[in-house]
Task: structure prediction
Amino acid sequence: MSNNFTFLNTSDRAVLSVFLTAGYPNNAACGELLDLLATHPAVSFVELGMPFSDPLADGPTIQRASEVALSKGTTLNDVFSLAERFRSKCEKPLMLMGYCNPVYRRGVETFVKDARSAGASGLILPDLPYESHHRDFASVLDSTGLSMAFLVSPTSTEEAMAKAFDTSTAFVYGVANVGLTGDAQSMDRGAFFHRIQPYRFQSPLVAGFGISTPSDVAGLDGLVDGVIVGSAFLRALGSVDESALNVEEVVNRANEFLKPFNPVVK
Amino acid sequence: MHHPIIKHGYYGEFGGQFIPEMLRKNFIDLEAAFNEAWGDSKFQRAYSNLLRDFVGRPTPLQKAERWSERCGVEVWFKREDLAHTGAHKINNAMGQVLLALRMGKRRIIAETGAGQHGVATATACAWAGLPCTVFMGAEDMERQKPNVERMRLLGAEVRSAQTGSKTLKDATNEAMRYWIAHPEDTHYIIGSAVGPHPYPMMVADFHRVIGEETKATLEGLGLQPTHLVACLGGGSNALGLFLPYLDDETELVGVEAGGEGLDSGRTAATIERGSPGILHGAKTMILQDSEGQIEEAHSISAGLDYPGIGPLHSHLAATGRLQTAAISDGEALEAGLLCTRLEGILPALETAHALAWTLKADWSGHEMVVLNLSGRGDKDLQMYTSRRGHNE
Result:
């Protein structure tokens, strides 16, 4: 089931997905966090962020996490090793999320094949245009079985909403605020997710960006199939000061953060 | 769009719109509004009146006698340093502010490197009565202090970008992030011919007046230049001069910032040393490592300190229409000082790169060169004076 998201459609409550940046707070701790997420009953799937030097759509928390990961020398091969580790522990879907340039730099076909053999389920590349997806990605994704998620946002046109549901093979990623990852809520989420409903077709709908608490999740029940928590999870890990970094402590904090989510999701 | 060179937002293999969905609608709206305005004679008239009455256009085209003698070739300066606020940047800022007013936008944001575009945008916003926020790298704020003060006097808020290399690249990231969070009421005035379509061509169009004036003046004199020379950071002053000459036989020379040397690892020579990639929403030549991470550019000139270049420049270079060269920090400083002594013009450090190339190039003596004197160098006084102290 690792690259199949249809289970999202069949659950009656929104499931929880966690985003974390590969190599953050360091490679060892990230590996342990993935082990936790692999076995944690509240977590249905995971997004592993591929750190990029210029993350345009990310707020300060994920920017900082990317910067730390890159400063520790995290490479795409490290991302794939972490993906393999996760895959060896569970069958939960694993999305790789990042920006176009590192993917094109490696070569789209090589990247997709490497990602697939590392056990990844799909990709989220927020800056990838549909035309480039059709030209450069579609056929190799198809032949490897890797899926793709496109974004819709409160500013999306109706045409764009229809296109996202038409093209996404994993799920549609609903941007739950006007702003960046981790930004505080400044919009009527319910209204936006109600506006999306008529376009929902086949692909499940997952909400992310600025979702941080169990009550955020509860507020979207019935409107989405899942939610992604990213910045709030990374913030909960606490200080990343290398001298004070205690992997066990980091994992404990992650565990604490996930506790209140248990009753919310199925 | 009205340019035959553009196909679906691409210039050859370069360009495009590599932007998150949150910005998509802004770009759809912007392209439609620009195309409509550009084709509207009322908008054109308002824009040219503003260029004449507020910016002080046309700028002079001056034969630089003593510089020519020194180079061994006839060199004319297109005096963009005499445009209001001291650089060509004001052409684009005024054009985009007019467009923003037309679109009903209520706030302007911009990024700036050397501060020239920031000053131009703050000026345009003061003129239009629009609030303005300028994002500037923390390091650039330090080395271009006078321009920071000017922007503040003009009523703009200057926000420092603290991420990455703390220069133009990071200021651009911050401006785009702000736009993602404020898509409805804000217009983003990009300061160079970079970024997602339609910015590269729109910014170039707002600068094409530079080349049009040059061409009209020279044709009036019965002259045809053999070479057009301009410095390349993002590349807006170069495109402004080059655009009306794209179909002529005139050679186009873009001079990049070599920094401490092309092989020093501390350079901003994007076309000379870069490779195709995606930065700030466009496919173009960029400085990147083997992992596709963007590398820090280095140049003594804050306005050229950028690891990308306009996609149209990448296309023109790839097809052989544009030739490029790199000039080091030291060569630029020396050329700037020399120009001050020989011509009585203190040029911006950016412009000094183009000047340095005309000193170095191999001339037969029969050529005729037009150099875009893109800006004045008051903002660089500190670097010039310390170099002069060092020389003496």
